[in-house]
Each structure stands twice: as C-alpha cells, then as structure tokens.
C-alpha cells in the first residue's frame, strides 16, 4: 500500500520533470514574452534529432567517447535550437509582437515546415538552402554599402530573390542528377529514429519494490539544473534584469536605453535552446520522429497556463502536480487505493489507462481554470488590472 | 542642446504636429504649455523616438537623431520621464533605478550602488528599495521615474507632466527636486506642464495650439493674458 503510493509519487515526479523540462522554454517564450509559440514542440524535436546526429558521430569514435556523448549532445542541442530560435525571432516573430493571433498562425506554419524539413532533409536540400542564403543575403549585405540603398532596396529584393532561388534550385537539380542517391537520400526519412542511451544510463536504481531507471534520474537532475540556471540568470544577471524589464514594458525599456531588439532575440534564443535540451532528454525515453513535438506541445502549454503565465514557480508546481496526477490515475494506483469504496474504485478503474487518465486530467484542469482563471500563482499587486 | 526644426508628425492621416520649431539651450529649463490634445506629448515622443515624424529634423548637440532608435537616443543623453510614469511594475524600486544606468554610455562604470544624490533628492525612495515599483503610490512612482532618468546622467531631461494627478505637497517636492537638479548638474530640461507655479520656474516657454508653436518667450514675461489664451479652459 505505502510502497505503491511511493512508486506513484516517484514516477509522477519523473513524469513531471519531463513535463517541466519541456515547458521551461515555453514558460520563458510564452510566459515572459507573451509569444504563443506553436513551434516549441518542433524545436524539441530538432533538439532530439541533434542528439541523434551527435550520437552517430560519437559512435564512430567508439569506446569511452560514446559513453560521454550525451553531454556533448546537450550542448549541441542547446546551440542548434537556440540558433534556430534566433533565426525564427529575427525572421518572423519580431514583426508580430503584441499580435498573439498572428504569432499563433505563423509559428504553427513554422512547426509544419520543420516537420516536413526533417522528413525530407538531404544533402541536396541543405546545399540548396545554404547557397540561396549565401547569394541572397550576401548580395543584400554587399549592396547595403551603397549610399542609395534605402531607395533601391525593394528593387534589389525583387530581383535577387527569384535570381538566388533559381540558382539554388538549378544547382540542387544538377547536383542531384550527378551524384544521384548519395545526395538525394533523406538523412532521417519519415521513420522514427532511435537514440541509444550510453551504458551508464541503462538499468535502474532499485528503491523498495520497484526500479527507478537511471535515465529518469538523469532527467530529474537535468531539470533541476536547468531550473536553477534559469532562475539565477533571470534574477541575478544584468541581461536577466533587462529581459524582465523589456517583457513588462517594451517601449519604456527602450527609452531607458535598453537595446530591446537584442534582448528579445536573446530571450527567444534561450527559450528555444531550453526546448532543445528538453528534446535531448526525451530522446532518451523513446524513439524520435517528425511528430515527436506534437506529443508535447499541448502538455507544455497546459503546464504554463495552469501554473500561471509569467511565473516560473507556477510552472514547476503545475508540472509536478499534473505529472503525479496523471500517473496516479493512469497506472491504477488510485483505483487500488480506493478499493474499499466500490463506486469510486470503479470510477478510477475506468480511467486507469494512459489516454483516459489524460482525459480526466484535462477535465480537472478545465474545472480548475473556472475557479482560478489566472492559474496557480497569479500575478499580484496593483498593476495586475492595469 | 536640442534643436527641433520644421517637424511634422502624423497619426495615420491626421496631421498632429505642424512645422514645429523649438530650441533648448544648454543648462536651460524650457517649458511647453498648452491645453490637452494640442500635441505636447506627441512632440516629446517624437523627440524620444517613440513616434516617427514624416518630415523635419531633430538634433541633439548638433547631431541629427531622427534615424536613431529610442535606446540609442537614451544612451546619447536624453532622460525621459513619460506621462503616467511607466515605472516597470514587477521590478523592485532598486532594480528600476539600476535600469536607469543602462543609458550610461560607458558600460564599465556600472555598479549596483545607487548614488547618494538620488536619495538626497528623493528621501522617500531609500525606505522602499525592495518594494515592487508597481505597488508604489502615484507620487512615489513619479519620484522614482525622475530618479531613474537621473541615474543615466542625462544631458537633456524630458519631463512629461510630472505633477499630473499628484497631491500639492508632493508637487512642491518634485518642483524643488527638479530645480535642484538643474542647479547642481547643469542639465537642460524640457518640461510639459499645466501647473502654473511649476511653469514659472522655467527660463523659457513655448505655447502650443492645434499642433503648432504659437508663442514663446522668457517665462518672466509670461503674462496672465498669455496664460489665459493658451491654458485657461
């Protein structure tokens, strides 16, 4: 009985820590910046695929290197997704601040593009994209030195865009014809790929009657490390202070001399990078596919909203509560506990599968939000209504 | 110090500022008067870079600043105290003050210490360093906003109705503080104000009507007749 409950709590916390890790980046991007980033799940997926690639590289090194690949993968996943986030912010999001509906649609589009991108990415595609960027942005950069650039800017774009696209396309086709399958074969394809955990992460720690797998422990430690790092960054560093200021009052922050564009880009990049770390972590839990992100996006938004938008501590508590509840209901622990009370036990037995547990948790969250629309830890003070 | 010439600003298609010319000389306090809705705040926002004028020019110490973003202008030495204070609500008073130092041009000299002059000017702030900016009263927020602007050691201080909605005793305090700031730091001040006693502290006045400057002169010559024409309802 007691060990069953203990099991439940441990597993719940481990589920919760995965949720939290996934939601942490979103807590910054959505909670602090107010950007509804539907591509957050796909950023996680990007992190997971980065992990897969790093793993393959380290596999070829063999031996002790392979045992350590996960740390390099974490860094690589963070850097790759942060860079992608940076491009996303500079290219799309920054034109849409303060317009949540447009951001929602735009980032959803980005998520679809990313999904298809990992399915069809091949050397030809990469060569084409790189060539296009070099030609187009290179030309813009060169021409921007001209004194009359502002006047001819639109013309330059109108000419260079189709021109670079055409050159990139033709080059891609030619390369594809010459080298055939070696360059046109997709890197990953539509199938799921598997990330193998290093040896020291396999197996588990026996606690009482059950095993807590090392992977789960690793994710818990990782989550704690990320939360602490983010907390310290936001509350102790100069850039953290700037970030909090800009997210609360953009125009006034600019008037104080804070470079708001840099702050926005940095905030979004960090949020995206955290998604990459989360992706690296979830790749250890199961196979990774183009749709991996979809499985997490709803859960992560749920965590942020239930916790209270803009509150880090809210996200932490919400993730743990949702994780534990889902596990307790889904695994049937609660049904066993309530066995003496027949109708209640029947009720919880009905919901004792993973998907049905989710249904019940959703229903509970809807009810909860009726009473606490601002979440567990709403913003307080006289500024809330203003 | 500041020179605005032939400035035209539009909100969409409606013409707000019409051919505005204005000069603030170094170390002088200039007051902008006029009824509500004549474009005073619009003019200040254009100077700060929050609004983009359609034509005209703005120069700070001879350097044109129209192409620069608000944060660049702040670092060039414009300290802005907007209408409605705009204290960052969920940061502490201390953090708000530290953010004021963002405008300092050389980043090395930045510390976490608030200089004592600030507390000499506004003693009330010292007791509430750890309160959230948004939880202060209107008058305290106003003092915080001025103190925050001073943290960046501006060359030009732009104040937008610093006495709006504030009790008379605090108005006198703010007035005295602004006067002391001008006397001790030699900063130039551009002030928008309705409160007549405060207006008379300035060296020079510009009166606005329907988006244009219609009168200007030394405040010593600011007669009741002028006040009647441009301020009285």
Automatic annotation (TrEMBL), chain A:
Transmembrane regions listed in the UniProt entry: 12-36, 68-88, 100-117, 123-143, 155-179, 214-234, 266-288, 320-341, 347-371
Sequence similarity: Belongs to the binding-protein-dependent transport system permease family. LivHM subfamily.
BP GO terms, sorted: amino acid transport
Keyword tags: Amino-acid transport, Cell membrane, Membrane, Transmembrane, Transmembrane helix, Transport
PANTHER family: ABC TRANSPORTER PERMEASE PROTEIN, BRANCHED-CHAIN AMINO ACID TRANSPORT SYSTEM PERMEASE PROTEIN LIVH
Compartments it resides in: Cell membrane
The protein's name in its UniProt record: Branched-chain amino acid ABC transporter permease
Topology in the lipid bilayer: Multi-pass membrane protein
Keyword flag Cell membrane: yes
Xref: InterPro entries: ABC_transp_permease, BCAA_transport_permease
Origin species: Phormidesmis priestleyi ULC007
Molecular-function GO term, any one: transmembrane transporter activity
Keyword Transport among UniProt keywords: yes
Pfam entry (one): BPD_transp_2
GO cellular component: plasma membrane
From TrEMBL, chain B:
GO MF annotation list: ATP binding; ATP hydrolysis activity; branched-chain amino acid transmembrane transporter activity
Chloroplast keyword on record: no
Cross-referenced InterPro entries: AAA+_ATPase (IPR003593), ABC_transporter-like_ATP-bd (IPR003439), ABC_transptr_urea_ATP-bd_UrtE (IPR017780), BCAA_Transport_ATP-bd_LivF (IPR052156), P-loop_NTPase (IPR027417)
Domain ABC transporter: 2-233
Pfam families: ABC_tran
Membrane-crossing segments per the record: none
This protein's UniProt keywords: Amino-acid transport, ATP-binding, Nucleotide-binding, Transport
GO BP, sorted A to Z: L-amino acid transport
UniProt record similarity statement: Belongs to the ABC transporter superfamily.
NCBIfam families, sorted: urea_trans_UrtE
Protein name per the record: Urea ABC transporter ATP-binding subunit UrtE
Source organism of the structure: Phormidesmis priestleyi ULC007
Taxonomy of the source species: Bacteria, Bacillati, Cyanobacteriota, Cyanophyceae, Leptolyngbyales
């Amino acid at each position: 009985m007691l060990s069953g409950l203990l099991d439940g709590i441990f597993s719940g916390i481990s589920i919760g820590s995965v949720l939290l890790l996934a939601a942490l980046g979103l807590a910054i991007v959505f909670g602090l910046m107010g950007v509804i980033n539907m591509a957050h799940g796909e950023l996680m997926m990007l992190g997971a695929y980065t992990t897969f690639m790093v793993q393959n590289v380290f596999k070829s090194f063999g031996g002790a290197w392979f045992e350590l690949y996960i740390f390099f993968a974490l860094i690589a996943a963070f850097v790759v997704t942060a860079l992608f986030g940076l491009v996303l912010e500079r290219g799309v999001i920054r034109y849409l601040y303060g317009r949540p509906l447009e951001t929602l649609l735009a980032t959803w589009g980005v998520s679809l593009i990313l999904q298809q991108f990992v399915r069809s990415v091949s050397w030809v595609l990469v060569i084409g994209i790189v060539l296009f960027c070099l030609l187009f942005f290179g030309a813009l950069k060169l021409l921007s030195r001209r004194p009359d650039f502002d006047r001819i800017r639109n013309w330059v774009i109108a000419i260079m865009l189709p021109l670079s696209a055409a050159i990139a396309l033709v080059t891609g086709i030619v390369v594809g014809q010459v080298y055939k399958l070696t360059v046109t074969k997709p890197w990953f394809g539509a199938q799921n790929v598997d990330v193998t955990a290093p040896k020291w992460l396999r197996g588990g720690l026996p606690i009482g009657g059950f095993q807590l797998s090392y992977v789960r422990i690793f994710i818990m430690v990782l989550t704690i490390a990320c939360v602490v790092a983010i907390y310290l960054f936001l509350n102790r560093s100069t850039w953290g202070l700037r970030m909090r200021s800009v997210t609360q009052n953009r125009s006034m922050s600019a008037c104080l001399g804070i470079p708001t564009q840099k702050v926005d880009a940095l905030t979004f990049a960090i949020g995206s990078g955290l998604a990459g770390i989360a992706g690296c972590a979830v790749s250890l839990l199961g196979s990774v596919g183009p749709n991996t992100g979809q499985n997490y996006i709803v859960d992560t938004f749920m965590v942020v909203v239930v916790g209270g938008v803009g509150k880090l501590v809210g996200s932490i508590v919400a993730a743990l509560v949702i994780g534990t509840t889902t596990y307790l209901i889904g695994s049937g622990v609660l049904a066993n506990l309530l066995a003496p009370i027949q109708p209640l036990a029947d009720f919880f037995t009905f919901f004792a599968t993973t998907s049905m547990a989710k249904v019940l948790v959703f229903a509970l969250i809807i009810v909860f939000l009726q009473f606490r629309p601002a979440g567990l830890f709403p913003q307080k003070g006289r500024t809330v209504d203003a | 110090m500041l020179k605005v010439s032939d400035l035209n600003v539009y909100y969409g298609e409606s013409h707000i500022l019409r051919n505005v010319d204005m000069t603030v000389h170094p170390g002088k306090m200039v007051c902008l008067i006029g009824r509500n809705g004549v474009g005073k705040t619009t003019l200040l926002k254009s100077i700060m870079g929050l609004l983009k004028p359609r034509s005209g020019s703005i120069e700070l110490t001879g350097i044109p600043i129209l192409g620069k973003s608000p944060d660049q202008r702040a670092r060039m030495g414009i300290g802005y105290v907007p209408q409605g204070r705009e204290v960052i609500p969920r940061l502490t008073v201390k953090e708000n003050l530290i953010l004021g130092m963002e405008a300092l041009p050389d980043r090395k000299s930045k510390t976490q210490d608030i200089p004592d002059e600030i507390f000499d000017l506004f003693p009330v702030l010292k007791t509430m360093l750890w309160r959230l900016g948004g939880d202060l009263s209107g008058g305290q927020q106003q003092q915080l906003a001025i103190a925050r602007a001073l943290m960046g050691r501006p060359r030009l201080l732009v104040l937008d109705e610093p006495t709006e909605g504030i009790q008379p005793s605090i108005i006198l305090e703010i007035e005295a503080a602004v006067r002391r700031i001008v006397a001790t730091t030699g900063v130039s001040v551009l002030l928008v104000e309705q409160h007549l006693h405060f207006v008379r502290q300035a060296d020079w006045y510009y009166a606005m009507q329907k988006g244009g400057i219609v009168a200007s002169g030394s405040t010593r010559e600011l007669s009741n007749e002028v006040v009647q024409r441009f301020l009285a309802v």
